[in-house]
FAD-binding protein (Streptomyces solincola), 188 residues
Amino acid sequence: MLTVSTAVLHAIALVGAGPRGTSVLERLCASVPELAADAPLTVHVADPAPPGAGRVWRTDQPAGLLMNTVACQVTLFTDESVECEGPIRRGPSLYEWAAARGLALGPDDYPSRAVYGAYLEWAFARAVRTAPPRVTIRVHRARAVRLTEAPDGRQTLALDDGTVLDGLDAVVLAQGHLPSAPSVPPHT
């Protein structure tokens, strides 16, 4: 079992690396300069699926599986139309991103889920690449299985690969669509 102690550093865990987890990571990285001055921050991202796309928006899906939102209305970035705490960090919409790569996708087209997954993977990689120098991002391709709180309020997150992340200041649950399981056993 690997135990990663973060008691002397500021540390946050994101459980889920799909669209919501990617968006939280982007906002954390954008806001770090306004948070604790010069304090290092480690962000642990836990998800067994590929970071960015997650399980739902995998890039290996058939091209015929489409989103239910047009390409120009999808973005993971902020602009002046967004009311939020923290700085504005512009980035391309899904349509703008696809156009820059020569993909045949109009602004009012419904993109495939796989194309959106590729955009999400790119956005996650961009958030990691442009993170402030005092931010360390560690991706754990594992499932979170247990979350506990210490008397001092710090959190401990156990992953299914045996990794234990302790001394966490916060844990963000950004799990998105969870697999469903029957709540009542079927009649036999």
Remarks:
- The helical segments are 19-31, 94-100, 113-129.
- Strands lie at 3-5, 10-15, 41-46, 135-140, 144-149, 155-159, 164-168, 170-173.
